[in-house]
Design a protein that fits this description.
This is NPCBM/NEW2 domain-containing protein. The chain is built from 4 helices and 53 strands. It has about 700 residues and is mainly β.
Length: about 700
């Protein structure tokens, strides 16, 4: 947005206190951490009314092995193969708490506390891979004391799809049940908590001290390749355990982990599981399937002809030293552009050198998973045009090429319009114009709406090509790492744990993340959280520039939240609200020196690090519903005459709920501060067991 120097007197923080007091009536609304409260107040604080709109899915990005030893094995940590939770994420070793990760408390059932287990919410499912070598699953179950006598749930245990146990309806007033369930011979365990048939209010359930017992070491013999593959063999990941895959023609596929593999010749398609491969190469460990690509044989040289008799030669000069062989690299062989008209899992490498043709085009509403792929193109890499797509893009590498057309900019990594659901995770892409998601057509009750997480993006670029391999100076299209456009009343929308790195003079991004004419719903806002954005620049970094970090409320909208992000050196602004209602900016770190290492001052018309405004002057604007709270900000606006100038906050059409400015406001922000912020973010994502980008 364009900078503005007009600042309205901030609304009294008393109004904020009133607003937050009202919001505490529902745990679906985020609020600053409150002091410890007496037991009688706990149930009121957790008075959530969870609905299908609040369901959270969590397929572990890199599952830990559920390692089973002989005898007894505690189930602990994020060792599930998949999880579904009725309100917020599944909590490990704590109660469900509220909407955010890590907001639970010590698990407590009927006054007894537990140090290990899972805190969940009604309508939850946890799935585990067992392997068939344990006799009994045991746990203490009940509604956590944090909701008092409220809540009503039923606990169910399934083995290989068959219900083995049902607790019946339990409430907060029910006695704890200690259960033992026979799981002998079962290879898959699923723990389910229902909402008791009366909706999701207060349904905070605990699986306390879950344990497998009567376990034996595996004695199954499987066939593996004992001598390994030939030197130079490469492997392309197809999918993970319990999922289908496709191959082109007849190929060799291996199933397993580390050095334990079963090899099989597969034609067209298969399934990554024990049944398809005829055994389990690694008991109790999460496995994957890989395409085995044999090395291209080097032709043997033709035999040298026998030399003709000749007189004894004169002494030969010393031979020239042999050239050093080039380093061995794995080359990706790209296929022609792919058009998908049928649902399924697609892995491979596709390229388009025509800027008008996408590398992959999706033309079906059937669920499509594009994973473990390589993409390259002069236009869009993945295009899903008005087909009600249900699209997953996972673990792919994308490279945008100069379109070499003076009327075009580099294509999007994903461009989807008129879609039903999108999951974009664990991808790495360079030199594209980002992700564009327009006109969501999904159903609010479906578990998946829009999720963009754990991606790594370099140099988002909206510069117009010059048609000769370069770019036109000063001409650009406004592009983003992620833009949501006309995503209306969509629950469970999440843009999280992504890392975006933009290079000055080699990129041109507008708002790195932009929410345009879009809205979540009450209790489930569009959440932009835990992202690292490092740099956002005009092609000429010193030129007047309206882009920046995270823009909420562009074109209006409602129920949007930016929280726990790290935004660094994004030129015009860090995080901002341009309009709309029920907008929250909280707990972010926003830092900018306002200049490049070579001394170039950024953006001739720079703005504040965080601002709250209503550019449309909407008469329906609710000032008290737009809040900035708990942020740390230091935003340099240096000039030739005032190198330490700052503009940290501009609260014109919202509420300043209390934010921290870095040091004195006449202190320059330094590269050391920014480096420390990056290190903190990297530590945070590592602590979650995640990385950004392809694994």
């Amino acid at each position: 947005m364009t900078a503005s120097s007009s600042v309205r007197t901030p609304v009294s923080t008393l109004l904020l206190s009133f607003t937050l007091a009202l919001s505490l009536a529902a745990c679906s609304t985020s609020a600053p951490t409150a002091p410890a409260q007496p037991e009688s107040a706990v149930a009121a604080d957790l008075g959530d009314v969870a609905t299908d709109a609040d369901i959270t899915t969590d397929t572990v990005l890199e599952p830990l092995a559920l390692s089973v030893a002989a005898g007894e094995t505690p189930i602990s940590g994020r060792v599930w193969t998949s999880a579904l939770n009725g309100y917020g994420p599944v909590e490990v070793n704590s109660s469900n708490g509220g909407k955010l990760a890590g907001d639970g408390r010590t698990m407590q059932l009927a006054g007894k506390t537990y140090s290990r287990g899972y805190g969940v919410h009604g309508k939850s499912e946890l799935a585990f891979a067992l392997g068939g070598d344990c006799d009994t699953f045991s746990a203490d179950i009940g509604v956590d004391d944090e909701v008092g006598s409220l809540g009503s749930v039923a606990f169910q245990v399934y083995g290989d799809g068959k219900k083995l146990f049902d607790s019946g309806v339990m409430t907060g007033a029910s006695a704890t049940k200690s259960i033992k369930v026979n799981v002998a011979g079962r290879t898959r365990l699923k723990l389910v908590v229902t909402d008791g048939g009366d909706g999701g209010a207060h349904d905070h359930a605990d699986w306390a001290m879950p344990t497998l017992s009567g376990c034996a070491e595996s004695t199954e013999t499987v066939t593996v390749v004992p001598t390994g593959d030939p030197a130079g063999t490469t492997y392309v990941k197809l999918t993970t355990e319990d999922r289908p895959f496709t191959v082109t023609g007849t190929q060799t596929v291996r199933y397993g982990v580390d050095t334990r593999w079963i090899y099989k010749t597969v034609t067209d398609s298969g399934r990554c599981d024990n049944e398809f491969f005829g055994g389990d190469p690694a008991k109790f460990v999460y496995k994957s399937c890989y395409l085995v690509v044999a090395p291209t044989p080097t032709p043997a040289p033709a035999p040298a002809p026998a030399p003709a008799p000749a007189p004894a030669p004169a002494p030969a000069p010393a031979p020239a030293p042999a050239p050093t062989p080039p380093a061995t690299t794995t080359e990706v062989t790209y296929g022609a552009p792919l058009v998908i008209t049928k649902g399924g899992v697609y892995s491979g490498a596709w390229q388009s050198l025509d800027p008008a043709v996408a590398a992959v085009t999706v033309k079906t509403k059937e669920p499509v998973v594009i994973e473990n792929c390589f993409l390259k193109g002069r236009g869009h890499l993945i295009l899903a045009p008005w087909s009600n797509a249900n699209l997953t893009v996972r673990n792919c590498q994308g490279e945008g090429l100069n379109p070499n057309d003076a009327t075009r900019v580099p294509g999007r990594f994903v461009h989807a319009e008129g879609f039903e659901s999108v999951l974009i995770e664990r991808n790495t892409f360079r030199k594209t114009s980002g992700i564009y998601l327009n006109a969501w057509r999904g159903v609010a009750s479906n578990a998946l709406t829009i999720t963009v997480r754990n991606n790594l993006a370099y140099d988002i670029d909206g510069r117009f090509s010059d048609g000769k391999g370069g770019f036109q100076p000063g001409k650009f299209r406004r592009v983003q790492f992620v833009q949501l456009n006309a995503v209306q009343s969509a629950p469970r929308v999440e843009i999280a744990w992504n890392r975006v790195e933009n290079t000055p003079r080699a990129s041109h991004v507008e708002d790195t993340i932009n929410l345009y004419a879009s809205s979540g719903v009450s209790g489930s806002p569009i959440r932009v959280h835990h992202n690292l954005i490092n740099g956002a620049y005009a092609a000429d970094p010193s030129a007047s520039y309206s882009g920046g970090g995270i823009m909420l409320g562009d074109g209006g909208g409602a129920y949007q939240e930016a929280s726990d992000n790290t935004v660094l050196e994004t030129s015009n602004y860090g995080i901002a609200v341009a309009g709309g209602n029920y907008m929250t900016i909280k707990n972010n770190t926003v830092l900018g020196q306002g200049k490049l290492p070579d001394g170039t001052l950024l953006d001739a018309d720079t703005d504040a690090g965080i601002y709250l405004r209503d550019y449309k002057n909407d008469p329906a604007h609710i000032v008290s519903s737009v809040v900035a709270v708990g942020n740390t900000v230091g935003w340099g606006n240096p000039t030739a005459s005032n190198p330490n100038a700052r503009w940290d906050l501009s609260i014109r059409d919202g509420v300043d709920g209390g934010n921290t400015k870095v040091g004195p406001t006449n202190m320059a922000i330094t590269s050391t501060m920014e480096t420390a912020a990056i290190t903190t973010w990297e530590s945070s994502i590592s602590a979650q067991g995640m990385i950004a980008g392809v694994r």
